[in-house]
Structure formats: C-alpha cells, structure tokens
Amino acid sequence: MKNIAILSASLLLISSCSNEFEFDFSFGGSEPYDSNFKDAFESTYKPMESRPILFKSANIYDGIGGELLNYDLLIVDGKIKEIGQVISRSDVEVIDASNKWVTPGIIDIHSHMGVYSAPGVRTSSDGNEATAPVTAEVWAEHSVWTQDPQFALALKGGVTTFHVLPGSANLFGGRGTTFKNISQNTIQAMKFPNAPHSLKMACGENPKRVYGNRMQSPSTRMGNMAGYRSAWIDAADYKEGMSEKNPDQRPKRNLAMDTLMGVLDGEILIQNHCYRAEEMAMMIEMSKEFGYKITTFHHAVEAYKVADLLADEGICAAMWADWWGFKHEAYDMVQANIAIIDQARDGNGCAIVHSDDAVGIQHLNQEAAKAMAAGNRAGFNISKAHAMRWITSNPAKAAGILDQTGSIEIGKNADIVLWTGNPFSVYSRAQKVFIDGALAFDINNTKIQPVTDFDLGIINPTTTRVQ
C-alpha cells in the first residue's frame, strides 16, 4: 500500500473512525410521554417521478447469488415487476441492455458523508461529539449537510443507499441513519422510510486514546469494557423505570438512555467499530449479558480469526478489501478476510465491503472485485454473482432494509444500476442509476447528473475544474 493511502486512512480514522420496522415510542406506557415525539424527525421521502421501463437482453446479477444471462427486467411504479427471458409490453420505455450488466443499487453500510462533508474544513467536521465517552444521545442525521458534493459522486459509482454513522471517538457515538441517495433540501426528505436507527459503538484504540490523553476514563481496553457495562446497567434501570404504569413514577426522559433502551427493545441496531478478534468476542459476551443483538462489526480487520463465531451468532462483518497497517490494531490483516467471513460455516457468513471513505464509496464495485480475487487466490471458489452480495443484499440486511431493497426480486424497490460492462471490471462504469424506478443519474446526459447548490455557487461543475 502506498504511504499516501496509509496516511489518508489514518487521518480518516482519527477524525471519524449502515425487515421493515414499525417503531413504538410508548416506552412501557399506554401513551408516549410526548405526543409529538413519535413523528419527530421521521422520513418525508417521496420517490421521484418514474415511468415503466423494460431492460431488454440484460445480464443480471440479482444480489442474492444469481446470474441471469440475456434476461429482461420490467420495473413499474418504482418496483420490480417482472424478470424473464422474454417480456413484451408496449406502454414502456425500452432500454437495450445487450452485452451490459444490471445489478441492484450499491449500498454502503459505513459512510460519513454529510457529517464529514466536502470541503473538509473544521467548521463542517460534525461526525464526532468527542466530549464524553457516552454520547448515545446524539443523532448523526442532525449533523448531515444536504449540500455535500460527495453524495453525487457516490451516485456516479452506483450507490443508491448509504448508512451514515457518527465517528468512533466514543464508546457510544450516537445514532446512525440510512438515506436514499437523492438530492433534497432537508434531511428528512432523504431518510430511507421505515429504516431503523443504529447505535454506533467503538472498541479498542479510539475511545481509550481520545479520553486517556485527557487523563480520564477510559484509558485502557478494560476501561472501555467497564464504561460499556456501566452504561448498559443504567439503561436497564431506565427501561424498568419507564415501564411504570404510573407516569409520575417514571424517570425524567433521558436522550442517551432512550437510545440504549431502543437497543434493548430490539428497535435500534448495533453497528460496532471493532478491529481485534478478542474484542469482538468480548462484545458478543457483553451483548448476551444485557440481552441485545450486535448487527455488524465494522472495519473488523481480524474478523477472519473468529469467522465461525460471527456466523454462529448471525453477525455481519463490514470490512475493507485491503486497508491495513495504519495503526497497531490494524496490523494483523489478511487479504482474504472478506472471503473467509463469507465462507464461514459452509458459506453462511455475512461479509460486507464498506467504504468509510468519500473516495472509496465511489468504486465499491472494484473494492468487491479485489476482495473476491484475494479470496479465490486463497483457494475459495467465489463467483462474481455471489460476491455481488457483499455490496448489495448483505449491507441491506445489516441496515434492516433487506425486505425493501438490496436485490433484484419481484416486489422490491427498483433501485437499479445499468453498467457499461461487467461491474467487476475496472473498466466498467455506472451508465444509468435508478432509485425507486426513477432515473437519478445518466452518464450520457448532463441534465441527469445531480449537482448541489453549493457546487453551482462556485464554478460550472460539469466542466473541467482547472482554471
């Protein structure tokens, strides 16, 4: 790895570190303690206008392991309507997809777009509330800048959905949120409808370094564990208190405890930054102590050492294809890490390729290709159709939205990418990107290439930036 890549990754990690759910915010009583709270900050997303489209003679990776050669795909009213070898319909726009590939839209489970927006200036560095080890009360969506130019760049790479997390300075960093990759003026209009919140937790070096350098707890890994457990004890007490039928006997509402209680109630998913194998095992033990579920370990450089354990527990691992060595806990890496997780317990592991990077999110298809090649060099027989799961259905599962997107199946959202060639080729690019059946990006049409107001206020973004 080139030194500049290591330096970039190091700086990023220092500064920063994605089934339909129905939420019940009554918290134990028959009525919520704030009648307006249930609807606070909920999604106002509305799909863009779309029309029926028929892809003819496409090669399809369906995102769940299938490869369909020379198939037709029909999308109607923003949904996948039909998949077949010969589909005939007159009232549709026909796209000739001969010798091209169609895939589900790419999903990034670990993004900091919007909270670490571009340009990367200190005044817009809003991803880490690094003021206390436990900041479960903060929500990443309350920092997201809708004008971040990185959204459009990710869209050009085929990313239709992304999960924004707060950074990893804290034991509990706050809530993460899933977004549709469309240009809107408000955060709520980008939020993926009915997607659950997550809670960002962080193991290892980051929290103990940030607070240890201030001569406060935690300053060691055992201090980290003590901090987590103390917070969960408080959360269990808070949950019990909120179950009191008499409102006068309930504790005062606490935003941090609301989030932790949401995890204990199974409404909020745990996304856990964790590099080392033994720490992942300890976090699993702690989850059993307090009765909650870990959804995904992020970065997970040493996940291959506990691959069977993760598969047994039904925990996904979101990883880089080849980033390593930028700090001590990232040294013990193998390039087959993603493949080993995937193949655990007879192929029942849940592997994800994530970005954690504003540039990496633009070519996650290539990152998946690198991980697949490394796995096959190590002796695994992983097909391209299977590896497509790592950037589509598996991150959708980890974000709690697999029932709606992440694969090309009848009835699901028509989040679709048409590629110029095989998406595992370095030469292929996203030609057209559809979100809920609406054309969101067209490589050949500058009028369908989103541009933020921020960009428009500087220079012409569709021409060269060299002045």
CATH architectural name: Alpha-Beta Barrel
Question: Which structural category fits the helices and strands?
Answer: alpha/beta
| Main beta-sheet annotation | 8 strands, mixed
In angstroms, what separates the terminal alpha carbons? 32 Å
Number of discrete helical segments: 12
CATH class reads Alpha Beta
Round the Cα radius of gyration to an integer and report it.
22 Å
Q: What do the pLDDT scores average to?
A: 91
The CATH homologous superfamily name equals Metal-dependent hydrolases
**Number of separate structural domains:** 1
The percent range for strand residues is 15-25%
The low-confidence runs, each spanning 5 or more residues with pLDDT under 50, are 1-16, 18-33
Helix share, percent: 25-40%
SSE string, helices as H and strands as E:
HEEEEEEHEEEHHHEHEHEHEHHHEEEH
C-alpha geometry: globular
Question: Which terms would index this structure?
Answer:
467 residues; alpha/beta; TIM Barrel; eight-stranded mixed beta sheet; 16 strands; 26% helix; globular
Sequence-ordered SSE layout with sheet pairings:
Blueprint: H1 3-15, E1 53-61, E2 67-76, E3 79-84, E4 93-96, E5 101-104, E6 106-111, H2 150-156, E7 159-164, E8 172-180, E9 198-202, H3 205-212, H4 221-242, H5 255-264, E10 269-274, H6 277-290, E11 294-299, H7 307-313, E12 316-319, H8 337-347, E13 351-353, H9 364-377, H10 384-387, H11 393-399, E14 416-419, E15 430-435, E16 438-442, H12 453-456
Parallel strand pairs: 1-4, 1-5, 6-7, 9-10, 10-11, 11-12, 12-13
Antiparallel strand pairs: 1-2, 2-3, 5-14, 7-8, 8-9, 14-15, 15-16
Helix pairs in contact: 4-5, 7-8, 8-9
